[in-house]
User: What shape does this take?
Amino acid sequence: MKKPKPLAELTAREAKAEHARLGAEISQHDKRYYQHDAPTVSDAEYDRLRRRYEEIERAHPDLSTPESLKRKVGAKPSEKFKKVRHKVPMLSLGNVFAEEEVGEFVARVARFLGLETARFYCRAENRRAVLLATLRTRRARAGGDARRRL
Assistant: This one.
């Protein structure tokens, strides 16, 4: 894999071309993952592509449009996955690459719920870690949110 050119060295034309190429590649990966349940790249490679795409947008704000992939999560899910209604909306951990980022997420959840701290049970599902915590507190009994079970 060829190392990408440093952002500071990209011309506006090069940034636009790489941004468009990454956008098309990421969109194809999203379709294969969300609609066909057949990913063709590792999670780490996908995350690397997304980070580069977003770094280019930060360095070249004119490339950030309402259609930007940073404003979207994946693609329309496949109809073969049944819908699941959670008791409370799920909060997103996002991409985490360091232990301290997990700690920041736990602190965010605790603040959201008005708690001093939060504990979780989690299990690995396929290649992604999925965390669904049921907190037994009156503050957590809000309206649910429909998600698809993968």
Remarks:
- The chain has two domains: 7-71, 83-148.
- Confidence is low (pLDDT under 50) at residues 134-150.
